[in-house]
Amino acid sequence: MSRDYWEHRYQAADMPWEKGAPSPGLVDFLAANPQLKRGTVCVPGCGSGHDVRAFAQAGFDAFGFDLAPSAIASAEAKTKAAGLAATFALTDFLREEPPQKFDWLFEHTLFCAIQPTERDEYVRAVLKWLKPGGNYLAVNYFLTDPDGPPFPTTRDEQLERFSPHFELLSEWTPRSYPNRTGLERMFHWRRKAV
Ligand SMILES: C[S@@+](CC[C@H](N)C(=O)[O-])C[C@H]1O[C@@H](n2cnc3c(N)ncnc32)[C@H](O)[C@@H]1O
Predict the structure, then answer these.
(1) Spacing, Cα 38 to ligand 1 middle (Å)
(2) Ligand 1, atom 4: nearest CA belongs to which residue?
(3) What are the pLDDT digits (tens) for 18-52?
(4) What is the DSSP letter of 94?
(5) Domain 38-191 sits in CATH 3.40.50.150
(6) CA of 115 to the centre of ligand 1 (A)
(7) How far is the CA of 59 from the centre of ligand 1 (A)?
(8) Is 4 left (phi over 0), alpha (psi -120 to 50) or beta?
(9) In the chain, N or C terminus with fewer CB closer than 10 Å?
(10) How many CB atoms neighbour CB 70 within 10 A?
(11) Pocket test for ligand 1, best of 15, 50, 67 (most atoms within 8 A of CB)
């Protein structure tokens, strides 16, 4: 999907993914793991930045990237209004070079938003943006309607795509927004050292 496609969705306020709050699964993960080493975190396809602010609030040096100018403008305004510090940039996560390598990368409704034909590129981008030994934390959406976005994925696909490059530390069914209950699964991966 092009930059124009996503920008148009924001300008038309056609944003069913916008829940006004971070992923419940992320909120619970951060609350349950205060001992985990902080550092830099990259949130690609960050939308209006709720997840970025959750990481910032939990002590991470948080960065959000998105293709749509309106998403970045909204994320910056909401972060300023919340009195939090985070960095946002207009970036194509699949095609542009990362400004730096990150300690953490958080996936939430970007993998299912891109064209399924771009998924090899997505894995390559994660490898480009994340440090060896870095943490890839994903909330994957297991819906089944093939007419996306969002496009479906499965646990098997996630294991097949990420196992060659990552060690799976844990996986679980998270608490979800009400309309996604039972349709999400979280995976905490550590990138293999190269
Ligand atoms: C379904 S929305 C999810 C937004 C946010 N993650 C959330 O859950 O609220 C997908 C987001 O990914 C962005 N996006 C799509 N393709 C992208 C790409 N190649 N690089 C960066 N952002 C992208 C869109 O502009 C949109 O904001």
Answers:
(1) 24
(2) 47
(3) 999 999 999 999 999 999 999 999 999 999 999 99
(4) T
(5) yes
(6) 12
(7) 23
(8) alpha
(9) C
(10) 18
(11) 67
